[in-house]
Amino acid sequence: MDRQAPETRHLSKTDPVMRRLIREVGPFTLTLRSKRSPFESLARAIAHQQLHERAAESILRRFVALFPTGRFPQPSDLLAMDEQAIRGAGFSQAKVAALRDLAAKTLNGTVPTGAIVRKLDDEAIVERLIAVRGVGRWTVEMLLIFQLGRPDVLPVDDFGVRNGFRVAYGRRSMPTPKAVLRYGERWKPYRTAAAWYLWRAADRAKEAKKALAG
Questions:
Q1: Which of 77, 123, 125, 137 could crosslink 73 through cysteines, CB 3.0-4.6 Å?
Q2: Is this structure's pTM higher than 0.85?
Q3: Which of 77, 122, 158, 203 is flagged as catalytic?
Q4: Over the stretch 167-182, which tens digit does the pLDDT of each residue have?
């Protein structure tokens, strides 16, 4: 998207700090993973919970390799797979239970198909998906942003978003989720883009710190 995209135009107009950040970072370029089903997106999100990205991806590769097709399993395949084998891929007992519950709730329709989920509004999706064991609001917000490309999602429980806010706005301490939510009212209806820029602010601060240390 160019600098005059509606998201960046609105954020620049309503917030001088965002305007500076947009100027420094450049265009808003969110990469969507729209081909994944809600089941696969949530299973991957469960794998990533409380783990470094590289470790989670390694576990997911071993997990997918358990299945004969070499592709991400269907819910019924996951339920048929031996629990110890899934544990052997690197999942904790709690995550295995969450994956199995996700598979069961996909089969019974609690977790909607990709076609159905696109017709639901954000809060309806959150309400349905947090019924799955181990899936909280943050996990659903990642699906809303990266799979469905919803434009007005602000994941205030995300460490990167709050840290990016701290960096960009020159705060000494980490802001609370409520404080970021309150401030973010001015970013509506493009809070997803604001979150993306806050992630970039956090990444840039991390890179600057590494450069100083090195």
A1: 77
A2: yes
A3: 158
A4: 999 999 999 999 999 9
